[in-house]
């Protein structure tokens, strides 16, 4: 099992606050934050995973530190991984969290 950056996970918790629709789940060798059962963001290693959706994926990949989410040789469409160094500032992290959370909130509850 891969360790993940607990400090980054804690920053996500603080940003999201006490939303009753928020749950946490260990997955992908890291931790995921879900809204209504849909994964929004997560931490894998030192990096942030963000579910942006297919429509926003290209724009998301153009942002600093973002790359295709590919852990198994099969890229996950609609997801990006953002280098931990690109979310060192709370403002940058918050923008990514809000984007992932808004996308997850737009999906049917699981």
Count of all domains: 1
Mean pLDDT: 94
How far apart are the termini? 26 Å
What is the 3D form? globular
Low-pLDDT stretches: none
Helix content: 25-40%
The assigned structural class equals: alpha+beta
Largest sheet: 6 strands, antiparallel
Order of helices and strands: HEEEEHEEH
- CATH arch. level architecture: Alpha-Beta Complex
- Proportion of residues in extended strands: 25-35%
Radius of gyration: 13 Å
Count of individual beta strands? 6
CATH topology: Aspartate Aminotransferase, domain 1
Number of helices: 3
Strand order of the largest sheet: 1-2-3-4-6-5
Name of the CATH class? Alpha Beta
Protein name: TfoX/Sxy family transcriptional regulator of competence genes
Domain TfoX N-terminal: 20-104
Pfam family, one: TfoX_N
InterPro entries: TfoX_N
